[in-house]
Structures are given as C-alpha cells and as structure tokens.
Amino acid sequence: MKVGDLRVFKSHVRFGYANRLYVVTHINDEDSVVQIKIIHDGMIDHWDRIALLHDSKSVAVKKCP
User: Fold this and answer.
1) Cα–Cα separations (whole angstroms), residue 9 to 14, 45, 59, 64
2) Residues 30-56: pLDDT tens digits?
3) Containing structural domain, residue 47
C-alpha cells in the first residue's frame, strides 16, 4: 500500500464505509497509521495499516500480459 492507491472497503465493513472508494493520502511508517480520503464525501479518516489491508481491496487497473 502506498500514497495514491485507490481502494474500496469490503462489504462487511461497518460505519457506513462498506463498498466506498477511498484514496490513500498519507502513511506514517512509525506507527502504521494510514490517512485516507473517502471519495464519496471527501471525509478524511485514519486507519491502522493492517486493519485497512484486511478490510479493503485494491481497485487498481489490471494490465493484460
């Protein structure tokens, strides 16, 4: 995961984030906190990096070989 990654929350996530797109805006390597911006409403939030990886999936464009 890196700054600029576009991801989507999985459907099991609570707090109204399920299926919402977000972009990673900052990563603090010292304490594994990731800042994200929710695309739908522009809200900024902070998540634990491991939890975020578990609760979301990449929306990166897949390239054909």
Assistant:
1) 10, 13, 10, 25
2) 888 999 999 999 999 999 999 999 999
3) 6-58
